[in-house]
Each structure stands twice: as structure tokens, then as C-alpha cells.
Amino acid sequence: MVSITISSAAKPPSFAKNLPISVEIDTDSTIGDLKQEIARKFPKFYAERQKLSVKGDRKALDDEAKISTVLGDKLEGAELQVKDLGPQISWRTVFLIEYVGPLIIHPLIYYFPNIWYRTNVEHSELQKFVFAFVTLHFLKRELETLFVHRFSHGTMPFLNVFKNSAHYHILSGLFLAYEIYSPKFAAKAPAIVGTYREDPNWLWAFAGVWAFAEVSNLHTHLTLRNLRPAGSRKRAVPYGYGFNLVSCPNYFFETIGWAVVSAMTNGYTAHLFFVVATLQMAAWALKKHRNYKKEFGKEYPRGRRAMFPFIL
């Protein structure tokens, strides 16, 4: 057993005013075990809310790292700092909240046009296709969140849920739905009559590409799930369909899906969401690509790009 001093990295929260404290813990324990010990002394300071770091270093310590490895020969009498990350919410809950927005907003606008446009809308085949695409996409995302995804991080700051949800509720929800289901794209509208937007061959061709993208995206998520045993944070190099070319084929395939909606409608909001979503996913992909290369080094395939084959 060793005694470790836990001090506050900033002003301690009201429920942990007694910091600093000394914690007695076994040398084979992990940082996660240490967080649990802190939570026992301050019940409201639950482990997910804590960020532990070596004094003078802001880098967060990994929950799975052994205390003896982190502190080395400075173990006895060592001091770690804890920072309050604020109220937390599980990633699974965040995803469910994000994706449910479009599942509510699109039907409200599609089925009740009188409320939004002050007129009836005879839906065109284009509008029916887009409504099906959006509904099936976000229903798939909800089911994946419940039954497929395994998260490496359990929680995130509660306030972030509002920022994250805005992307889906406003851009792919309210903005996209309001334009696409409007009289502008109704069955007898000039934007539809005599154009590719009412040609069944074009619509089903778009549907085929969209279905390919969605199924491929699901396949990618299943591959990632199978790399991580339940209840663990194990990471491994992914291989197989899509991964032979890029680190994040799930983002690549999702981009294809939204490109279909953008091309088949040629609507301003569809273009806007496609650009914003692609830029955001590219940023995530580049970060994950760098982390893969850093973690696995020479084991990681050198020819892979982050998100777009041979390009990025």
C-alpha cells in the first residue's frame, strides 16, 4: 500500500472542499481504481467527473494505466491533481438524443405542411424518397447506438449535448426538412416537372447508391464492434472492407449517402448540410488517423488515408 496525495487542479467543487486528501491504495491499482477511492470520500465526485493528472502536467491519465507505471520511483508520497469536469452524460444517451431530432422533425413537416407552409403539399416522388432516406438513416443510427456501438469513453460533459444536437436537429432536421418538403419540390412544381427529379430511373439509381452507402456504413460499424470485446477499451488495427483504403470508411460511406441527397435535390440546405457534415467528419477522421498511427506505429498500414481513398 502507498499513500498518494490528491489535490485540486483548480478551485475545488463545493462537494469536495476537503481537498487535498491522502488516499491509501495498493501499488497494483489503476488510475480508475484511484478515482473510485476519491468517489468514496466524495460521493458526488463520481469517477466519470474526475480528470486526474500528475502535478504540473495537464495531460489526463488513462483509467487503465497502473499507478506504479505512471509514478515510477516517485510512488510513495506522490501527488496527483484532480479536476472537476462538471456533470456528465453517457455517450450512448447523447447519440440517442442527437439522432431522435430528425426522426421527430421530418415527419412533423412532411405530414403537416399546412402548419409550416399555410398550404397543402402534394408530395412528389422526390420528397417521398428523401423522407424515406432520412427516416431510415436516423433509425439505423439509433439502432446502432443501442445494439452495435461500443464506446471507448463512457461519458461527456452534459452541456455538450446541446452543441452536438444542434448539428442534427437544426441542419439535417429543421433546415433540410423545411426546404425539401416545401411547395418548391411538390409534385407539380417547376423544379420537379420535366426534370431528372421526377424520372423513376434517376430516383432509383440514387436509391441504389444510397443503399450501398448505408449498408457499407453499417458493415464498418460491425467491424469496429467486433474489434472491442464487451466491457473493454481494447483497441486494435481494423482490416477488411473499406479499411484497406482508409482509416474511417464509416465516414466515407456516410458522406456518399448525404452526397446522394444533395445531388438528387440540388437544394440549398442539402448542400449546406453535406458540406458541414463532410468537413466535420473529415476533422474526426484525421484525428483518428493520427491516433491510429501514433498508437500502432509501424504495425499500421502505411498506404491508408484518413477518409477519402488516395486523397485525404
Automatic annotation (TrEMBL):
Lineage: Eukaryota, Fungi, Dikarya, Basidiomycota, Agaricomycotina
Coiled-coil residue windows: none
Pathway connected to this protein: Lipid metabolism; fatty acid biosynthesis
Species in which this protein is naturally found: Coprinellus micaceus (Glistening ink-cap mushroom)
Subcellular location per the Swiss-Prot or TrEMBL entry: Endoplasmic reticulum membrane
Similarity field: Belongs to the steroid 5-alpha reductase family.
TECR-like N-terminal domain span: 25-70
UniProt keyword Transmembrane helix present: yes
Any one Gene Ontology molecular-function term assigned to this protein's record: very-long-chain enoyl-CoA reductase activity
Membrane topology designation: Multi-pass membrane protein
Record keywords: Endoplasmic reticulum, Fatty acid biosynthesis, Fatty acid metabolism, Lipid biosynthesis, Lipid metabolism, Membrane, NADP, Oxidoreductase, Transmembrane, Transmembrane helix
Class of this enzyme: oxidoreductase
Any one Gene Ontology cellular component term annotated for this protein: endoplasmic reticulum membrane
Full protein name: very-long-chain enoyl-CoA reductase
